[in-house]
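A favour, since you know our structure tokens better than I do. It will help me judge whether the discrete encoding reads sensibly. The space below this message is yours for that.
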Amino acid sequence: MPERDVVSWAAMIAGYAQCGNGEEGFQLFGEMQREGVKPDQVAYLTLLKACASSAFLEHGTHVHSHIIKSGLESNVSVGNTLIDMYAKCRSIEQARCMFDRMCERDVVSWNAMLAGYAQYGNSEEVLRLFQQMQWESMKPDRVTFISILKACASLTAL
């Protein structure tokens, strides 16, 4: 490809991530930067998903630092993807820290955090967070109830 822009880079990174080659995707990110191509929101989201799917916490925190420098951390979609990435990389404390720092949250934000807690068996925290979600008048969706049911099933097993 004679001229590569941020869209073509993001597409290649996404392709690697979808095939389970997150490491190669992250290497492309480095090459993209060396060529002077500035990542956009889509490129960052793609990178975070690659880190989450491969559980690359170190790479994910590196991307997070770039996101902070770019000023995109306050974007709801970026925040949601950071929560998901940290939770899938077994850093639930970092996920919660990101969740708590978000100025604006949507149902996806809540679901990402609830799913993270449910994934690691923290059923009581799932229920506490669901209660907080209701207090803040956030309407749950089907995805929300999957985490709630998983937490309740786990508590019943105790």
The mean pLDDT is 91. The CA atoms of residues 83 and 113 lie 7 Å apart. DSSP finds nine helices and no strands in the chain. The first helix runs from residue 6 to 18.
